[in-house]
Specification:
Elements: H1 3-6, E1 10-14, H2 18-30, E2 34-36, E3 48-52, H3 59-67, E4 74-78, H4 83-91, E5 96-99, H5 104-115, E6 120-122, H6 139-149, H7 154-161, H8 165-179, H9 184-193
Parallel strand pairs: 1-2, 1-3, 3-4, 4-5, 5-6
Helix pairs in contact: 4-9, 6-8, 7-8
Length: about 220
């Protein structure tokens, strides 16, 4: 195999019809990806799977399917891509969830972000009307947001950062205000859309408050 192909990003493409699969495969191939036909053997997994969801697929269906793919991160394409629907799919385990009508460049960018371990949410023209520029967060707010998006409770965040529960609550309240959200699910979606966090791993050592300044 030529060296350029040996080191290519690999993707498994799944779609509701052969013509859609061919179209998605062509977009990725033109961008330098290698499209494979199956999930491969352990140690030879594709970097990502790109899955055009059937219209009737629920988050529960997605969660069951992801459990069979042995940790391959999945980017799902959705026809009814409301922010709530995308957030539910991310909560179900998808690494990325985007509107199936996003343009080719945005699709390639989303695929690469998922391959790099980031979470992507893109509702295309069905966005929720929030500002397009991410807010400015302090270092501590960024740490709290990353832990919140990884599923930690307020108590677990407090223990990790060695700060009080009330301090965590204050940070979460300010984050909700800055992100213009009212729940953790909305915060995950908004933070992922703006590229503020990585969901796959949170590198915040215990005792971080000794180097991060005031809580």
């Amino acid at each position: 195999m030529p060296a350029s192909r040996a080191h290519a990003l690999t993707a498994l493409v799944l779609a509701t019809t052969p013509i859609v699969r061919r179209g998605l495969a062509a977009i990725l191939t033109d961008a330098g990806w290698q499209v494979v036909d199956d999930a491969g053997e352990p140690g030879q997994r594709p970097r990502i799977a790109v899955w055009e969801l059937p219209p009737a697929a629920t988050p529960e269906v997605v969660a069951r399917a992801l459990g069979e793919w042995d940790g391959v991160p999945v980017l799902v394409l959705v026809s009814a891509a409301t922010p709530d629907a995308l957030g539910a799919l991310v909560s179900a385990g998808a690494r990325g969830a985007v509107d199936r009508d996003i343009d080719e460049a945005a699709l390639v960018q989303a695929a690469r972000a998922v391959a790099e371990g980031r979470t992507v949410v893109n509702a295309g023209t069905r966005g929720d009307g929030t500002a397009s520029r991410p807010p400015s967060l302090t270092r501590r707010e960024s740490q709290v947001l990353a832990l919140l998006c990884s599923g930690r409770t307020n108590r677990e965040i407090a223990d990790t950062l060695v700060i009080s529960d009330n301090t965590v609550k204050n940070h979460v309240r300010r984050l909700y205000e800055k992100l213009q959200v009212r729940s953790r699910t909305e915060a995950v979606v908004r933070a992922a859309r703006w590229g503020l966090v990585r969901i796959d791993g949170v590198d915040v050592p215990a005792g971080a408050s000794t180097t991060a300044g005031p809580g």
